[in-house]
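Checklist before submission:
- one chain only
- standard amino acids only
- sequence pasted in full

Submission:
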Amino acid sequence: MQFPTLLILSSLFSITSFTTINAAPLTSRAVRDSTDDATTLAAINQLLALFSQSLDNKDFEALRDVYTEDAVLGGEGTPPTVGIEAILDFYTTTFQNESLITEHTSDTVLGSNFTETTASSTSYANVYYFGPAVFERGGVLFRNDSAQFREKLSNDYTRGADGNWKISRQELVILSLEGNAGLLRPVPGS
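Returned file contents:
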């Protein structure tokens, strides 16, 4: 029996290698094995890097290059956020605490459902949140608070007429949390 081939890209938002593995057939998920799939997966990887960089730099306008105009952002137990303007508002509000420093990294991207204009992926990310600096010693800032999330992102992508890929649907599941999740709350006067 011939099994479809899935592409797996393992990196920290840079293309270090990609490997094909044989997998059992996926119901209603036709996966082609072609150089187009590798190119699509590389584009998805770069898009996820832009997503992380936009959040870490608090450059929320750059998210316009990440999401489609009618994108849907969802998560466990929260109503969906629909449309680019609502998504920008969501991230601006979530990360409005100026003393909050974030670091987003992704370690696995599994791509599937490749067509000429659509694709899907599942990725896992570590997200670190650091509170305000407490003191500095030897050029190192010591912080009194931090939190770490392990997240699973399930994304659907659409390729626009300009040839660029964007996220059309994103589902976020928090797999684990360590530390102070209250860091995301705004600090009075910030």
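Reviewer check: The longest strand covers residues 165-179.
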